Amino acid sequence: MTSRAVGSAFARLPASVVEPAMGRLRADLGPAARERRHAHLIGQESVDYGYRLVVAGES
């Protein structure tokens, strides 16, 4: 039993639908796709992830 088969909507779909979709997902998450999408970040020395801390109260 795969982890998808436990409590997943994918367990109800036929393999003919799920397997091609999983193949596309593997390709999207693979190193070649990741490098292609994020090539502009490779040479950067810093990254702003957008995290902000807001503290309310008395100073």
- Determine the oligomeric state from the structure: single chain
Q: Please, how many helices?
A: 2
Low confidence ranges: none
- Overall body shape: flat
Radius of gyration using CA atoms only: 20 Å
Structural class comes to mainly alpha
User: What is the average per-residue confidence, as pLDDT, rounded to a whole number?
Assistant: 85
The string of secondary-structure elements, in order, is HH
Helical coverage, percent range: 25-40%
The largest β sheet comes out as: none
Write down how many β-strands occur, each being a DSSP E stretch of 2 or more residues.
0
In short, what is this structure?
It is built from 2 helices and no strands. By secondary structure, the protein is mostly helical. The longest helix has 15 residues, at 15-29.
Secondary-structure blueprint:
Blueprint: H1 15-29, H2 31-38
How would you describe the overall organization of this protein?
- By secondary structure, the chain is mostly helical.
- Helix content is 39%, strand content 0%.
- It is built from 2 helices and no strands.
- The longest helix has 15 residues.
- It is flat, with a radius of gyration of 20 Å.
- The termini are far apart.
- 0% of the residues are buried.
- The model has no long low-confidence stretch (mean pLDDT 85).
